[in-house]
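Notebook entry, structure prediction.
Reason for the run: the old model in the group folder had no record of what sequence produced it. Starting over properly, with the input documented here first.
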Amino acid sequence: MAEAYIVSAVRTAGGRRGGKLAGWHPVDLAASTIDAAVERAGVDPAALDDVIMGCVSQTAEQGLHVARNAVLASILPESVPAVTIDRQCGSSQQALQFAAQAILSGTQDIVLASGVESMTRVPMGATGRFTPAFEPNSPKSPRLDEKYPGIAFSQFMGAEMIAGKHGFDRETLDAYALESHRRATAATQAGAFRDEIVPLEISDGNGGTAQHLTDEGIRFDASAEGLAGLKTLREDGVITAGNASQICDGASAVLVVSGTALKDHGLTPLARIHSFTVTGGDPVIMLEEPLFATDKALKRAGMSIDEIDLYEVNEAFAPVPLAWLRHTGADPDRLNVNGGAIALGHPLGASGTKLMATLVHALRARGKRYGLQTMCEGGGLANVMIVEAA
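New structure, fully documented this time:
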């Protein structure tokens, strides 16, 4: 039976908007993680069959096929192909699923799944500039408006809807956010991210250079009082900048190989991809789909949530992992054990393989076996992947 193995999993430390990674072009940011993933696995760069890269804002510096440009900027030879994909926040998790599918089908043996997003240099909404000569000048077409009249598809509103539906008040959301910062702080201070982070050279602000090794978004001094003082995004709402994911610059990469490649190239597996799925649901509340996708993924894998040792559920907004916990009955002590996107940042197209890098290394560090990763995606989509640590 064909198997798909992860042999390296890396990410950059996150950069805040306008922060330490602002000087890095996203193509070079992505190329740095491609290089690191290949070098750490110890595989011949020319042996790669494909590079699949997630990116949400595919315009400006991330336009004109950012995946191919990143390959050309990397140590890989020109003979290695690439493709850029967009499944919104799950883009690089979908890249990883496509890589696994290619390996399991027997059509390819070594595939790099990756993602990049410089939210400083290519801001959210950059792809929403349309030709003014045409109406309605919006991604929402007349047919779509007929099916969902007067409804603006909004992740912010989806987060508010989840909070209302599941009964999460502002205090509960802020308490969750504070815990995310606490866990990220503890993980950073303990060196838990050391094996997954790719050092990047940055300016030290004094004319010299330094290594960027620490996620810039972590608030090491976060407090309940500080979170409570933030304004909600809408007057009668519960979502604030403090209990939502941080805008972030970053890139990540996961190298997936077949059993044949594992032997032929003398590679060491970090994990085996056990199962995966993707589902679609309500595009209005939209961010709730990981709950139901997890149900399907566990059923397909013939597993229960109690058999999963660690979970990575993307903290796009605090109500999402909280609703996921309540729906699945999962153990909160196994969820996002090193903090999540509220503290570490959510570099959109890079978050899928970023979370997988953290999950794989966390499983191995704790001597645990199974990990599950899922994230909500625009349009009411969700990917789920279950891996087994080697």
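Summary: The two ends are 17 Å apart (CA to CA).
The old model has been moved to the deprecated folder.
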